[in-house]
Amino acid sequence: MTAPKYERVRALEAAIQAAVNVLDDPIDRIEVRRDSILVGANSRQLILAWSYQNAYAPDGAALPGSGHWFATVTSGTGRLSLLERIRAILK
Q1: Which of 27, 70, 74, 83 is 20 to 30 A from 19 in CA distance terms?
Q2: Which domain holds residue 40?
Q3: Number of structural domains in the chain
């Protein structure tokens, strides 16, 4: 069994991996809440849901070592819109 502090690190790793697929800028803020993880980059913010997913044997018992943390983006803004890109170019 892994200590809870290391499980938190694994959950954060899953959240960061999910966020970098959406955000173009480097991540500069991370906030862990009871039921979500907030990730910010520049002026954008994502809210990610996180859960622990495990594989189970036919008898319903959890398979040792099969679990992993999973994070999905539930709301927020990621990539720049076309208008924001044009404004950034014209600055």
Answers
A1: 83
A2: 4-90
A3: 1
